[in-house]
Structures are given as structure tokens and as C-alpha cells.
Write a structure and sequence with these properties.
The chain is α/β, with parallel strands linked by helices and 229 residues long. The protein has one domain: Vaccinia Virus protein VP39 (Rossmann fold), CATH 3.40.50. Helices cover 36% and strands 19% of the residues. The chain has helices at residues 20-27, 35-47, 56-70, 84-92, 109-117, 132-135, 155-164, 192-205, and strands at residues 74-78, 98-103, 125-129, 143-148, 166-175, 210-215, 221-226. Strands 3-2-1-4-5-7-6 form a 7-stranded mixed β-sheet, sandwiched between helices. A hairpin with a 5-residue loop joins strand 6 and strand 7. The longest helix is centred in the first third of the chain and has 15 residues, at 56-70. The protein is globular and about 40 Å long. InterPro entries: Cation-dep_OMT, SAM-dependent_MTases_sf, SAM_O-MeTrfase. Pfam families: Methyltransf_3. One of its GO terms (molecular function) is O-methyltransferase activity.
Length: 229
Amino acid sequence: MSNKKNIAIGSDPQPPNLGGDVEHYILSHIEPEPDYLYRLWRATNIYMLHGRMASGHLQGRLLKMLVHMIRPKRILEVGTFSGYSALCMAEGLEEGGKVYTFEINDEQEDFTRPWIEGSPMADKVEFIIGDAIKEAPKLGLEFDMAFIDGDKRTYVETYEMVLNILKPGGFILADNTLWDGHVTDPAYDRDHQTLGIRRFNDHIAQDNRVEQVILPLRDGLTLIRKIAP
């Protein structure tokens, strides 16, 4: 008698819980986290109230790899936080490439700017304090790639802004799209951030201008490609 678990036709087996031993195994079998980024991650978790918002080793290496694969010249990031993800994406850029990263919280600047400007990637990152929805279009630039990781309540508005200044065939990465599982939990039906993520996911699923896939990595990462007209 087979000891394999029964799996419904057309379904995928459930992924392992990425915690404990499995997470340690993964991190020990991927590109090591650069020392500067480890120190930034540690400082973020010590001094920032919500330190876990930083991308961290696994997602950071994925962001770098995706930049290598997509080969963008210009990346727009909405939501800098401590600068970890911006620096990871900058690592993957070719000569002349740049990350334009917006942080709406001006109280974040004193922590973040020194880490960005003191990094080996400083010349590839432009750190801007301001509301990206209003300010990014004023740059007058077209982007090849964007990373959305700002206010979850305005994800749809951010997405629409980004799509307008993203070149055809360009990519958008949207973070936290599973929101710690709250997207399927009725207990969070009145939580505004959860509702913002749900609204975004529904919006993307019905948008025929793009192709998309959700990766169950950390808190959920959605990869979106703008279809050429």
C-alpha cells in the first residue's frame, strides 16, 4: 500500500512551514547575506519599532536575483523603511542603473539616509522623502521595474500610479500580499490594512493589463508583468 498522502487532482502539495530548521536550511544554501546588509538588518531590528518589516536575507537575495534577471535601468521603490530592500536591488543593477526609493515618513530619514549613503551601493540609490503617489510622476521618468512596499491601505492607488510610469513589459513586485494570512481570516474583516491588501489582490486579479503570480514567500510577494499593448 502506498504511503503517499492523497493530493486532490490539480492541486499542489502544501509547502513546508518556512520556520525553524527549514528556514535555517534555506539560508545556509543560498548566497550569503553581505556583512553590511546583516549589520543594517540587525540595527533595524534593534532600533526600529517594526524591525521585521525589513526584507531580510532570503527576500533580499531574491530581489537581487530578480534584478539580475529583469536587467532594469531604473527601479522605483515605494516604501524605503530602513533601506535594506533598496540596497539589495541596487546590488543587482548593471552600470548606470539606479533605484529611486520613496519614504513618506520623514521621521525615518535620520536612521535610513546614513545607511544608504554609507553603503557600497550609495551611487545607485536616490533616497527621496515624500509621497510617491504624488511625487514619483514628477520625476518625468519611465521605469523598468517597481517594488511596492508602502502603506497597504493605498496599494491600489500606488499600483495605478506605478503602472502609468512603467514601460510595457516592465515588472512590479508587491510585498506583503498575504499579510500574515489575514487576507483569508474573517477576524480581520474590519482591519483597514488587511482590507487594503484584499482590495489590491482583487484589483490585480481582474486587471487584463497585467499578468501576475503570488509567491508564498515570507508575507506574500506578488510578481506582476505589464503586458505590452
